[in-house]
Structure formats: C-alpha cells, structure tokens
Amino acid sequence: MLAGDDTQSLKRTPLYALHLARGGKMVPFAGYDMPVQYAPGVLKEHLHTRNAAGLFDVSHMGQIELRAKSGKLEDAARALEALIPQDIVALPPGRQRYAQFTNESGGILDDLMVTNLGDRLFLVVNAACKDADEAHLRAHLADACDITALTDRALIALQGPKAEAALAKFCADVAKMKFMDVAELSLDGLACIVSRSGYTGEDGFEISVPADGAERLATALLDNPDVLPIGLGARDSLRLEAGLCLYGHDIDTATTPVEAALNWSIQKSRRNGGARPGGFLGASAILSQLDGGTARLRVGLRPEGRAPVRENAPLFASADSAEPVGTVTSGGFGPSLNAPVAMGYLPAALAARDAVVFAEVRGQRLPLRVAAMPFVPNTYKR
Amino acid sequence: MTTLYTPDHEWLKIEGDVATIGITDYAQEQLGDVVFVELPKVGRAVKKAEAAAVVESVKAASDVYAPISGEVLEVNETLGTEPGLVNSDAGGAAWFFKLRIADKSELDGLMDEAAYKTHTA
User: Which domains does chain B have, with CATH numbers?
Assistant: First the structure.
C-alpha cells in the first residue's frame, strides 16, 4: 500500500502510542502522524471541549529558546523585535504575547507565541514553519542570541471550562494564573512551562513537558473523567469558531497582519508615534497600513443557509457578478453554533458588518453575511 | 425487494421500477459527522454515475452518485433538518432519493450484500 510508505516517513510525537491506545484516527499533518479524531468524532469532541475539557497533543509545534549572549534578557527582546511587530521589551516576566514573523514586504512568515521566562524568551511556532523559523532566527539573531530548538519537549493543550480544575489537582497555583500568564511549575514531578492560553477560544492551558514524561502526564490528566483526548479536527473547528487564524490558510507570506485584522496584536510602542516605532522587517508597509488602512481585510462570514462554505470558495459582491472579489480562507461547520461559519478576505468597502456577499459552491451562489468574530464568545480568564 | 450496492458505497432498494437510494453504514462511518445534505430536485433526470446529491461532513463535501439512470420521484426532506440521521440510520431512515428506473439492465453490474461485504473488508 502507498499509504504505508507515506506514513513510514512521518514523524511521531511523544504521545503517539497514547493516540493509538485511545483509538485515535491517525492522519499525516505537517509531517507528523497525528490524531484527527477519536471514537466520539469531531462534533462530540468539539462540544466536549466547550462544555468540559479537551486534551490536545500539539507536540508537533516548535519550541525555541532565545538567550541573550550578553546575559541580559532585554537584549534578546530587542533582537527579536527586529523580526516581529510586537513589543517584547515591555513584556513582563511570566507573560506571553501573540506575534508574527514578518518579511520585507510585510507578509507573515509564521505566527507564534512569545513568552518572557525571566532569563530567556520562549517561543512556540507552527509545525510546518518551525525549521524555517529557526533558520530565520539564526540568520538575523545569531550575533545577539543563543538559539535553541527544544526538540526534547512535548506540548499538551488542556482546553475548556474544566481545564483549570483538572490541572489544579497537580498544582494548585495554576488557578491563580490569568490569561497569557506563564509559569515554570512542577506537574507530577515534571519540570513544565505552563501558560494560560490555547487556540480554541476557551479558557485553558498549554503545557510544555519533557518528552519522556509527556505520556505519564497526559495519562494522569486523562484519568479525570472530565478530560477527553481531542483530535485535530475539533481543534480546527474550535479555532474557526473563535475567529483565530490558521497559518497557511488565513494568513501567509502574501497577507500582512493589518490585512489579517491582527492590528490588536501590534502594540502602540511599535507604531508610528510610539516609543520604538518600526525597526522590524516589513515595517514601512505595515506601519503605513496601520495609519491608512488596507485594500482588503479578513472578515468573519456567516453563511445564511445550512450548507458549509469551505476554503477556496470564491466570493462575489452580488448573486450574478462575474468577477470574484475575494476568497474564503477557512470554512466549515461550527458545532457550537449548529451552523456553518467561515472567514475570508474581502475588499475593505465590502467588509462592513452585516454586508451580504455570495460564495460560489457547486455552481450555486450562496449568501453570507459579514459577521463579528469571534463567532463564539471566548471565555479567557482575564 | 432486493438491495444492491455500488463500489462507491451507495445502496439501492429495488421495488418494481422504483429504486430508493442512500449511502451505506460503511460510508457514513468513513465520512464522520454529517452536517448537511444537498438533495436533487424532484423531476430531475439523472444519468448513471452522475453526481446527484452531496453529503457534507464536518471535514469535507462528498458527492453521492446516481447508481443508475432515472427520474427523481421523491427526496427525503427530513435530511434537510436532521442530517445526523445519516450517521444514526444510514441504511434505513436516512435514504436520500427515489428514482424511477430508466433501464433495468443497469442493475446488472451492481453488487449484492455478500459482494459488498467483500468489497469493504
């Protein structure tokens, strides 16, 4: 079988055996053999995460540490600010921030999380981009920073309203953490980096754990009946309902953070008139877009019927116009809404709330309404 | 009444010159949670192997092919409001549409239950 040859070349995370033991349906994803779903299926897994707690293996993502050669964290922060439009200099110890690596034209090379761990910066990057990200960091920051890819750690996301109670059994301190707080904690005797974050719109945690202890910790968390293992299928529908971008789909090297409606992630200090304006790759394009707007914009879309409108569906200004004006970049069914949801790019003039556009699906023009995101309100503990 | 199967995982129940068509339990299992079904219009003439309906799971859209040629006599409107019926009763209540069979000889190439079981084994 061809499939056998393909899967042999796929990498496995430290939780691979656990996925098989729990009946995970494995698929290739970003070079890894990953569970797309378990026996309950995507709908039930999605709703379980919204109502209780879901455990996700996100070990395929990259974990990278930056240490300033000078020994001063601020030097690492300043160096990293040459590659991202975010403020890292003012990011306090024990805090995390969402960021984007940009290119010379302002496009997005990857999106990532940046944490100040006091003596070093800790980065979590996308699986498909992690080798390129590491090379990018080395090409630009090698003089200022020691760059270490942490290949001996797993990453577990525990998401949902019962995540705090499930994790507090191992360390009561997690209950005190707020959204985007990060702490180095011992969980079940394992030295973990715990952040109160995730990518589902739910309250929850991401736990970086030594690879050789990952299965033990995941198993201990799954001993709690409120916690179920959740596959990548539900992770995708959860992040779509939360209005969160998926790299390579909603954002890529041809979209800027401003076009992607990620302005909120760019702090005032890095903008024109701020304390440290610009100084990052693509700054001139991005700063002028922040001031003057963009020709197109990522928007939320609610199809008016029940038919899902999926990625790559062309968008039209009217039911009978000939030329598309935009494209759906993510789309599917939102189990929490019991309705289809999508996001995509539209000309700024058509991107107003409640504007109606049309997607072409199987030769038919289906109406969609421009809608606010997130589609499902987030429940972060701020 | 005879039940026949296609290699693409549709089933047909034949009663006189009418065929009731749905997808198999094996197919719904592969598709996962069904969230939307698009049915053909009553009166439409479909040709064998033509895409006649669409079933959308959380993951993807899949065509349902007409196993034989014929005219659409009736569609299962219930699937419009309860697409999940395809997961819970693929072989029964979740039938998709009924065709007036145009040419009975087209049934010859289809599988019986034993052959279909071998096909999906």
Answer: 2-120 (2.40.50.100)
